[in-house]
Amino acid sequence: MTGNNHASQGDDRRCGHCERQSGECAVRCRDCDGWLCEDCAGTKTIECGCGNTVCDDCARTCNECGSRMCGDCAYYCEHCEHSLCEDCGYRCRMCDDRLCSDCQEYCEQCGERYCPYCCERHACANTQDPCYRDPYEGRPVREPFTFGLEIEVDGNHDTDMLRNHRLIAGWCPDGSLHHDGSLEYQSEPMTMSQLTEIRRLVERIATDTDNTLSGGHMHISRTGRQTPARWYWALEALDGTQCEALNMRHMTDTRWCELIHGDYCGKDTAINDTHRHTIEFRTFGPWHHDTAGRLDAAVHYMHAMWRFFQKFPVPKLKTRDIQAMSRVAATQAINDTNATTAGRRRI
Which domain of life does this protein belong to (predicted)? Predict the structure, then answer.
């Protein structure tokens, strides 16, 4: 009785290609569960490397090498959905997406393969080493004051606007920035006459992410009279309200820019004295649309103190004189900027 049942089931197997009863030698497709008779199985199936047998309709063909496989062993390009076998295709170096040869992009600088999205955003594509221009070139100046900005933007933004601006010298990724599209831009050395132009550029920087981890480090020209100790006492004299108005953060965010007497070296100090031609002030917070209104005051304060230090050889200044001048310079710079901003609004 049982044998008759098996025979009946075997007789009911219809070949998916020729519609004949498949009989006892029928072959079943691993992917679609369809049956093939013995004759059709010899020409209409493939045996995958994993041991599975699949019909022609279900078999996948690798677009790279032409090998055929079952659905379990097939991979797909994440961008065009071409079929790929296990040995073919590439992994994007950044996002690990599997890619066919048509969709992967090769970087000649680092030798890695990327998907189109990551290729535009990886470090090589997003780096231009700055070649700084002297703003006083051809115009000899006895005591040239210059300032430059490092503008960190954490998140997607208008990169073309910044890259194509004449005051931007270079750009690169920064390890402290974590959102997609983040970059740090280095400005050219600038004179006071270019302050309005750089502020207008900063006013146009907008992101949809929190930029609290960004910085707007300012570099000023170095001379023998511009010592980090003098600048320490100048910054130490400012109160919280003045620091806020100047976009300084050494009183509230000491993790990134701690103001310590005698500590003027490294990435977590308010005053970094390790550069050959400039002194770097890491106390400044990010520069973008919401902080652009403080840039004029910050630069005017730095300029006033720079000029003050230039008048007195080291060590002809007393601490109390530096601190008194610092408070006056900050108040004046903030008041002048507020008055100018109010005037612009009336116009």
Answer: Bacteria
